[in-house]
């Protein structure tokens, strides 16, 4: 069994956190970011994200590729537009 499959198949629901975000994002920027995060959050692939590098207080967030960070599912729901 490959290492990645071992890590992702062994994830139980009590190890997962569900995060719900409501956002107005007409360009789907956050959705694209989250999808890219999921693609890159692979076992064996560590990386950092630098936020607001030109700002007064830039922050770097690191993701460890040892298998502890795992994105199981991303569900982006578009609201149904009602006619007014």
Element order, helices and strands?
A: HHEE
Uncertain spans, ≥5 residues at pLDDT below 50? Answer: none
Taking the sheet with the most strands, its summary is: 2 strands, antiparallel
State the distance separating the first and last CA atoms: 55 Å
Kindly estimate the percentage of residues that lie in beta strands according to DSSP: 5-15%
Multimeric organization:
single chain
Estimate the mean pLDDT confidence: 80
Helix content: 10-25%
Strand order of the largest sheet: 1-2
- Form type: flat
Q: Over the alpha carbons, how many angstroms does the gyration radius reach?
A: 16 Å
- So how many helices? 2
Structural class: alpha+beta
Strand element count? 2
Topology readout:
Blueprint: H1 3-9, H2 29-40, E1 47-51, E2 59-63
Antiparallel strand pairs: 1-2
How would you describe the overall organization of this protein?
23% of the residues lie in helices and 12% in strands. Strand 1 (47-51) and strand 2 form a beta hairpin. The protein has 84 residues and is of the alpha+beta class. It is flat and about 45 Å long. The protein is built from 2 helices and 2 strands. The model has no long low-confidence stretch (mean pLDDT 80). It has a two-stranded antiparallel ribbon. The chain starts with a helix and ends in a 21-residue tail after the last strand. The longest helix is centred in the middle third of the chain and has 12 residues, at 29-40.
